[in-house]
Amino acid sequence: MLDEISAITNRLSVRETLDDRIDEAFDAMRMMGFEALIYDYTPTPCDIGGQVEIPSLLKLRNVPGDMYDYWCNREYFRIDPVQRLAMRTSVPFFWDYDPDVETRITRFLTDETKPVSDFLRQHGMLAGVTVPVHMPRGDYATVTGVRYGAQRDFMRDAMRVLADFNLLAQVFHEAAYELFDDTVLNGSGVRLTERERECLSYSSYGLSAKEISRIIDRSVPTVVMHLNSAARKLGAKNRTQAVVRATQCRLLERPPAL
Prior knowledge:
The protein is an alpha+beta fold. The protein has 2 domains: 2-185, Transcription factor LuxR-like, autoinducer-binding domain (Beta-Lactamase, 2-Layer Sandwich), CATH 3.30.450.80; 192-248, Arc Repressor Mutant, subunit A, CATH 1.10.10.10. 47% of the residues lie in helices and 12% in strands. The protein has 11 helices and 5 strands; from the N terminus they run H-H-E-E-H-H-E-H-E-E-H-H-H-H-H-H. It has a 5-stranded antiparallel beta sheet, with helices on both faces. Helix 2 (18-30) runs antiparallel to helix 6 (154-177) and helix 9 crosses helix 10 (220-234). It starts with a helix and ends in a 10-residue tail after the last helix. The mean pLDDT is 90.
């Protein structure tokens, strides 16, 4: 399998777009017996209140046409049992929505998550394997392969290819990640100027506008202008909220002078 993964890695590298790389990975997954692909990326898994964030990227292959709408716009992603488990583990896992089959998602099957269960059962997306990918800065992705229909032998088949699927998922994610733009990486679509980010970063360490002005050699009104502009773009009511939202969106870096 290592030779096959090496070949897949090479094919991924020559694909120039994210969608082309996803298609390449999906072709490899189908050779392992999976019939659909779900790939998501979330810069910050949870908001300050602990609620699961909607992913900034959700790519689907061979799934019902309305799944994106349900998972993102109707926020099924927040109550998805597979996602709730994936946030808590870094180990690939098999899941099954057959009520007679107990898997690691069984404890997350509640009245709250029933809309997700109903949707998947209605469309025959009963079982699959998910690989959680947790990154150093806290961002998070999952790569999921799905098998349609109730097939008692799928768990056995999936377990046989679990290690290979995990390796494929990791290789694919690395290839996909390098093509992400700022809109995907910060999850908000907010674009701050370099000076706005700099001023907000210093503010996050408790510096006043006067102190920031001395460090960056700009006037106090100019610093205030940058801070206010950043807050407006972030939809923040004040500087403190702007810092919190910018941090959530991973827009801030440690200032070089601190």
